[in-house]
What we know:
The protein has 571 residues and is mainly alpha-helical. The protein is built from 17 helices and nine strands. The strands form four sheets. The chain has a three-stranded antiparallel β-sheet with strand order 2-1-3. The protein has a two-stranded antiparallel ribbon with strand order 4-5. This is Proton-dependent oligopeptide transporter family, MFS transporter superfamily. The chain crosses the membrane at residues 74-93, 100-119, 139-158, 188-207, 213-234, 331-354, 374-396, 408-428, 448-470, 491-511, 536-557.
Amino acid sequence: MDGKTSLTVADAVDCKGFPADRSKTGGWVPAALILGIEICERLSTMGIAVNLVTYLGGTMHLPSSTSANVVTDFLGTSFLLCLLGGFLADTFLGRFKTIVIFASIQALGTGTLALSTKLPNLRPPPCHSNNNCQEANGFQMGILYLALYLIALGTGGLKSSVSGFGTDQFDDKNEAEKTQMAYFFNRFFFFISLGGLLAVTVLVYIQDEVGRSLAYGICTISMFVAIVVILSGIKRYRYKKRQGSPIVSIFQVLVAAIKKRNLNLPYDIHMLHENTPDGSRIHHTNQFQCLDKAAIVAEGDFVKTGSGSTVNPWKLCTVTRVEEVKMMARLLPVWATTILFWTAYAQMITFSVVQASTMERTVGGFMIPAGSLTVFFVLAILLTCAVYDCLIIPFWKKWKGTPGFTDLQRMALGLILSTLGMAVAAVIEMKRLSVAKSVGGNTTENPLPISVFILIPQFLLVGAGEAFIYTGQLDFFITRSPKSMKTMSTGLFLTTLALGFFMSSFLVSVVKKVTGSRDGEGWLADDINHGRLDCFYGLLSILGVINFSVYLVVAAWNKKEDKTPKVVDVV
């Protein structure tokens, strides 16, 4: 019996619903299939996002500020929909079905986008000067938005489940498979970076030099192939049972606490409701005591059943359930202060690409696509990760005795580097504008006599910042959240990306309105050669300094709170 039990994975089933056989399911083969669909997702999303601003301006004839907002709204929606995808996976569909359904939606979206860029009726007629350019009409933009938001929906649902389904293929209670799971995370990040690298080089080149419809067609075909590949492993996967959405648990605590807001807390915390098994209990803390009222036992909290009575979870919650919500609440201050990084990040795939499109990009007779400048962004991420793993971690371990920087320190480095990146971008833009002014500023047909490689420092600084803040945020939100809410905390992390992009759109709209004049010029003029993009970058760097100051206070509060549970546990 023991031998038979050791061959099965306790909390996973196979495709027929039987306990998963360790020798026939899970491991690297099905995990590799899952990695394949992730690289295709990254190829499609990044390949579209980093070069979309040039299509919106050059083909659809939208102003640069409007183009930037379309891109950031598209990306923000993609990450925000991760919450929806996670909710559906946890509550109704399961991770595998969620991946297949939303990957199909993304493929449909890229196919629609390929069609919209191919048919002449779905884009305005070409023009050769800014004076007679006809902006895309409502129908043309409607088809484009349909395609983009189908992609956003597919990306959100897919991204919310693919990493979790990958880790489902390894048993964290088995030492050998637990080690393999750690390698899976490393390879998952590598495949994300590889997909991004292919997107900003090969795919962007095809878009600019061959045709966008072909490039988006390649994305569509690759997604369909990836779906077929992942379906081929149905019999090899391990499937975790759905346990319900943690969002419902959070709302139950909030509703119960609101209903009992007028009740007084007992003097003895042991009088609060708790029936969680000892091994899974979380100690009571004194923070957010208003939530403790959800655990007060009152009349009407129990519902009579045939065999006795049961608790109504919308009226009475356990102390452990309340503490789980408190743990999530403690994440919110850091969550709020990391949003601005992704606002700075958004400029790298919007206005920085617009900058590149106005500059000299020829190297040995080869014209570098403007969107391909983001390759330095990806390279900065890969180089920073390599230096951190190979040099900083061993050095820090010898000096401090810890394996590298803490999660809070990594996020701090990310915020510092992004602020520096925006300051450097402002200085570089001042130089570019001075060149534009010296040649008359009217250079829509011919590039400015200044090398595009002057933009590299801003890409490198913000890219290095992403390497630190992304890993720091992921570590922070996963390790400091309750075990039952890991998916929820990952979704919370991804909303910082979404809100960062939305904040970029908001700032662009406000700056456009405040600094614009009657002739439509301002900091974010339709033609950036007549604007003051340097001032906008400067504004972001100032906001970055203010935000970092707030972050230091929040980080100090979190460090203080880190010590509190340890003291309670010892006592």
